[in-house]
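Could you help me review a protein record that somebody else here produced? Do not assume that whoever made the record got everything right. The record follows directly below this note.
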Amino acid sequence: MMNQTGMQKNTLYVGGLAEEVNESILHAAFIPFGEIKDVKTPLDQATQKHRSFGFVTFLEREDASAAMDNMDGAELYGRVLTVNYALPEKIKGGEQGWAAQPIWADADTWFERQQMEEEMQRLQAEHKASIEAAEELHRKKLAEDREGEKEDDPMAKAEAEVLQQNRS
């Protein structure tokens, strides 16, 4: 019994297909991972060309899983593939099926984005801290230079001596 609301764990959605990829090429690309039950590349009724995605159904879930692990991000005819578990709605509703994606389907990219943003913030904070440290050093050096200038200033020296004498 297939859970209609869940993902079909033995059917893969394959996106990013080059125009020249047909069902037999798709079949050939995925057959190394196990026995394939079905390959579909839904055609655009107007152009009679596929809409750059297709579906590969394996007999075994493990084979589908291995194919997804190996083929997601792989290149076929110069295009990078996106391989995920298919959702039943995608097969029925074509591209509109995206709206039916469960929240977690985008979780990986969401986590990656979060990590990248955190990394950027961390780098910016480090950068800011190093600039502040450099400015602090610069201020100290300026202050020291000014102290040093007073040493050479005869008036300042005299004043300092007078102050010293008054204290003793």
In short: The beta strands are 8-15, 36-40, 53-58, 75-76, 79-80, 82-86. Residues 8-101 form a domain with the Alpha-Beta Plaits fold (CATH 3.30.70.330).
